[in-house]
Design a protein that fits this description.
The protein is an alpha/beta fold and about 400 residues long. The protein folds into two domains: about 140 residues, Aspartate Aminotransferase, domain 1 (Alpha-Beta Complex); about 230 residues, Type I PLP-dependent aspartate aminotransferase-like (Major domain) (Aspartate Aminotransferase, domain 2, 3-Layer(aba) Sandwich). It has twelve helices and 15 strands. Helix 3 packs parallel to helix 9 and helix 4 crosses helix 5. The structure holds pyridoxal-5'-phosphate (PLP). The site of pyridoxal-5'-phosphate (PLP) has 13 residues, from helix 4. The site of pyridoxal-5'-phosphate has 13 residues, from helix 4.
Amino acid sequence: MKINLVEDLEYVKYAIRDLVPIAEDLERRGMRIIYLNIGDPLKYDFQTPKHIIEAAYKAMLENKNYYGPSHGLRELREAIARHEKSMNNVDLDPDDIIITLGVSEAISFVTRILLKPGDEILIPSPAYPLYLSIPIIYNGRAVEYRMIEEEGWRPDIDDIRRKISDRTRYIVVINPNNPTGAVYSSNDVKEIVDLAGEYNIPIVSDEIYNKIIFDDVDYSSPASLSNDVPVFVMNGFSKAYLMTGWRVGYVYLANVEEDVRERVREYLLKLARLRLCINTPAQYAALAALEGPQDHIIEMNNKFRSRMELIYKRLMDIGVFESTKPKAAFYIFPRITDEKLSDDKDFAYKLLTEAGVFLVHGSGFGVYGRSHVRIVTLPPEHMINEAMDRIEEYISRLIAGS
Ligand SMILES: Cc1ncc(COP(=O)(O)O)c(C=O)c1O
């Protein structure tokens, strides 16, 4: 029997995992692959802190294994409201917070309630690839605004203004940024907030890396820089609390009148109800994460930073990459300066199949990512050195042979 499939999912892509089947096939055939593609500290030598695991275990033993409320456990929402007050200075009713299956589900929910077919969202370019594909699922499209590489990957405010149209439904800010590791200055964030206010467009603020910042840099959430520009704040436990596989995140809408807040809450809740709830023991673990000791964050960031410094140095020594030094998160996004290697997709493919190093082609992050690659800076030193040796050797072979 023939099954009629929709055709419009053709363009739904997620560059970070595009080459996974090829890598798995190479491994089956005996090649040892060094994975530098997925931003998951738990794939290397980082572990979820013990008190977080114990909280989940305790919840399970106490039979808190039931379906919870669709918008999340009240205790967790209360803790998030307190936390967001201290981080972003926003006054939240815990009922305004919806617990989601990671930030990923929050992005999907917010897009579903704002986009009609043909609508647009404005996203930074390069951007975390989910933002390129999510609008397609809802029959809209992503319009990319330029990040200026020469100025440390700061947002091009004039480009945002040029690209706002009467179909723009939200403007995305990913700060700190994946894939560039940049932190936007408060001044730039304020300019985006003012622009959004001028055109009556809400902001979607992805703050998943806001605890992974290396220097004493100037960082502000758009939610804290205005009282009257609506901001959907999204955050989660995957990165800062080393809980990638637990799948807990949240979203709330700041800076709107009570009636708007209520309608948005009702709509988000409609979507949340369809998937019943988020894993209940994982929510107790997230509660322990927020309320328990935070010491692992400093230690973890020190490690992230020294590994990033090592990759940065090794990459610069190779001679065919240029990059700003990341200030946050755990990625580096160098530009390939040698013309012969600058087809980033081809470069990533060949590096995987010929040298066994798996990194992600920059064009998978948007048009301004062309001729770049994204490298995860998480592995331990010996693995970084081996990966960099392999890249160096592959490139010198290639250049010598041409
Ligand atoms: C910018 C950004 N947003 C969202 C996500 C997804 O996070 P979660 O695990 O909370 O779904 C990621 C994951 O890498 C990310 O880098």
